């Protein structure tokens, strides 16, 4: 059956994009005391149709809030959200910018010129209006075929509904005309797809009767039962033991490799991302510092941003069973995560090239590096791109085909 949707952009044949999602200059900020701290600063990302993008970075890098904003799931208020996030899911649907008009409602705007923090532009009463408008767009996104695999399945599953009822509801998103028998058949099919016992007995369970691994698989089945064209998985293996994690990664790999599914996997597990994804976007302290094809980022001879190199070295060290220490500037606080506002490179306090003065320090301190291409489709935000090419980094940890016991970066 043809699903209906009122797009916020008029259909246009020229608007058909080879990219299923293009996000540009996205800002997200949260109010802390009397200021709004920007936790995503001018984030860009692009998901080509039929590809899976891995979004990596350590805790506090802003990756989850970035994607939550793109999905209309941001729970930050009052604050700042701005930019654009255009979904081109094809079929009957015109491209939709889920962030269009957000600035008209937002109490703060992003900083400009020499401003350090977002600036208040109106009182906050307009914010709930935007959330209401946004809820409609989120519903539209679901109807268009966008699915979510959340970080905490127990928090995302409805504790009062049996697994079967939740799965049958998801099946009806894709097949609104399905009879109760057909919806149940579809629910059992998806149980089998995620390697759960495909029976009415499993359908009759409540979420509290599931183990952690089972709940995660039900969550995956729920996301896929709606037959999405685009799926977002936020730390899909967090909290699972290594055996279950391997199983879930294998399951995701099998599902994501078939069909023309596109999506984003958010994780700090670099080997898992390398196995599941076609492209990689790396964030540090709210900024995207590198993006490129997964092969380039796994190739030890390919130049990488110094932060990506650090991630790869730490993943390798952990995979070898050794703890990895961060390179730290003398006198730097051990708690080095969090936002960094103003001009300059966000990574400079941990950058060896900067510390050893192999690049002009005033450049790294005074100018935020733009992301520029160092190879086809591979961009790095670093003032020392020539040096990166001379000091290749990386290694087998992101080769993409090994056993993934959860070497977290
Ligand atoms: S811009 Fe400067 S500080 Fe930043 S990663 Fe490059 S060399 Fe290091």
List unreliable stretches of 5+ residues: 1-16, 327-337, 393-409
Helix content: 25-40%
Biggest sheet, open or closed, and with what strands and sense? 8 strands, mixed
Number of helical elements: 15
Terminal residue distance: 45 Å
Question: What does this molecule look like?
Answer:
The chain is α/β, with parallel strands linked by helices. The chain has a domain at 299-323 and 342-395. The chain has 15 helices and 14 strands. Helix 5 crosses helix 6 (180-193), helix 6 (180-193) crosses helix 8 and helix 8 (212-225) packs parallel to helix 9 (242-257). The protein binds iron/sulfur cluster. Iron/sulfur cluster binds next to helix 13. Iron/sulfur cluster is lined by residues 306, 345, 347-348, 351, 353-354, 359, 364, 369, 382-384.
Short description:
This protein is of the alpha/beta class and 409 residues long. It has helices spanning 63-70, 102-105, 127-144, 153-156, 163-174, 180-193, 200-203, 212-225, 242-257, 270-276, 294-298, 306-319, 352-355, 361-366, 385-390; strands at residues 19-32, 35-48, 52-56, 80-87, 96-97, 108-109, 119-120, 146-149, 230-234, 262-267, 279-284, 287-293, 371-375, 378-381. 33% of the residues lie in helices and 21% in strands.
List the helices and strands and how they pair.
Elements: E1 19-32, E2 35-48, E3 52-56, H1 63-70, E4 80-87, E5 96-97, H2 102-105, E6 108-109, E7 119-120, H3 127-144, E8 146-149, H4 153-156, H5 163-174, H6 180-193, H7 200-203, H8 212-225, E9 230-234, H9 242-257, E10 262-267, H10 270-276, E11 279-284, E12 287-293, H11 294-298, H12 306-319, H13 352-355, H14 361-366, E13 371-375, E14 378-381, H15 385-390
Parallel strand pairs: 3-10, 3-11, 8-9, 9-10
Antiparallel strand pairs: 1-2, 1-4, 4-5, 6-7, 11-12, 12-14, 13-14
Helix pairs in contact: 5-6, 5-8, 6-8, 8-9
């Amino acid at each position: 059956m043809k699903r209906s949707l009122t797009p916020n952009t008029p259909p246009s044949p020229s608007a058909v994009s080879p990219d299923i999602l293009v996000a540009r200059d996205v800002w997200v900020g949260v109010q802390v005391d009397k200021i709004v701290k920007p936790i995503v600063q001018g984030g860009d990302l692009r998901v080509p149709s039929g590809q899976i993008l891995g979004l990596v970075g350590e805790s506090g890098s802003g990756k989850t809030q970035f994607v939550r904003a793109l999905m209309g799931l941001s729970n930050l208020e009052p604050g700042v959200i701005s930019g654009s996030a255009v979904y081109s899911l094809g079929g009957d649907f015109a491209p939709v910018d889920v962030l269009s008009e957000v600035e008209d409602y937002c109490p703060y705007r992003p900083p400009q010129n020499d401003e350090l923090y977002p600036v208040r532009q109106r009182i906050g009463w307009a914010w709930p209006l935007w959330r209401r408008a946004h809820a409609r767009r989120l519903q539209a996104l679901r109807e268009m075929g966008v699915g979510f695999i959340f970080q905490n399945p127990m928090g995302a599953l409805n504790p009062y509904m049996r697994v079967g009822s939740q799965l049958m509801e998801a099946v009806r998103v894709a097949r609104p005309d399905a009879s109760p028998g057909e919806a149940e058949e579809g629910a059992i099919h998806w149980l089998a797809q995620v390697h759960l016992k495909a029976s009415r007995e499993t359908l009759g369970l409540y979420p509290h009767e599931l183990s952690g691994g089972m709940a995660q698989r039900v969550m995956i089945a729920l996301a896929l039962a709606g037959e999405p064209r685009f799926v977002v998985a936020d730390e899909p293996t967090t909290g699972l033991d290594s055996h279950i994690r391997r199983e879930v990664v294998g399951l995701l790999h099998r599902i994501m490799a078939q069909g023309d599914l596109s999506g984003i996997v958010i994780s700090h597990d670099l080997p898992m991302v390398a196995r599941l994804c076609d492209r990689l976007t790396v964030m540090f302290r709210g900024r995207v510092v590198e993006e490129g094809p997964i092969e380039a980022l796994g190739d030890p001879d390919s130049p990488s941003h110094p932060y990506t190199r650090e991630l790869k070295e730490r993943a390798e060290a952990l995979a070898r069973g050794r703890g990895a220490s961060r390179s730290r500037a003398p006198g730097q606080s051990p708690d080095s995560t969090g936002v960094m506002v103003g001009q300059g490179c966000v990574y400079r306090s941990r950058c060896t090239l900067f510390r050893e003065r192999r690049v002009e320090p005033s450049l790294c301190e005074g100018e935020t590096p733009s992301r520029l291409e160092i190879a086809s489709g591979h961009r790095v935000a670093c003032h020392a791109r020539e040096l990166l090419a001379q000091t290749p980094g990386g290694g087998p940890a992101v080769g993409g085909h090994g056993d993934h016991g959860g070497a977290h970066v």
